Amino acid sequence: MKKPKVAITGARGYLGSILAREFQIAGWETTLLVREVREKGEVA
């Protein structure tokens, strides 16, 4: 049987990090989506 899959946006944030950990513990295949860290004043 295949593992269920989930994608979590904001995985570095408070709620996203909790969700990511819980899904991983439960055996889900997780894809974590995060923003790239930028230096102060740098524009994307």
Estimate the helix proportion, in percent. Answer: 25-40%
Number of strands: 2
Count up the domains. 1
Low-confidence parts, pLDDT < 50 over ≥5 residues? none
Question: Structural class of the helix and strand makeup?
Answer: alpha+beta
What does this entry show, briefly?
27% of the residues lie in helices and 23% in strands.
Describe this structure in words.
- The chain has 44 residues and is an alpha+beta fold.
- The protein has one domain.
- It is built from 1 helix and 2 strands; from the N terminus they run E-H-E.
- The protein has a two-stranded parallel sheet.
- The radius of gyration is 13 Å and the shape is elongated.
Topology summary:
Layout: E1 5-9, H1 14-25, E2 29-33
Parallel strand pairs: 1-2
Give structural attributes.
single chain; 44 residues; 2 strands; 1 helix; alpha+beta; two-stranded parallel ribbon; 23% strand; elongated
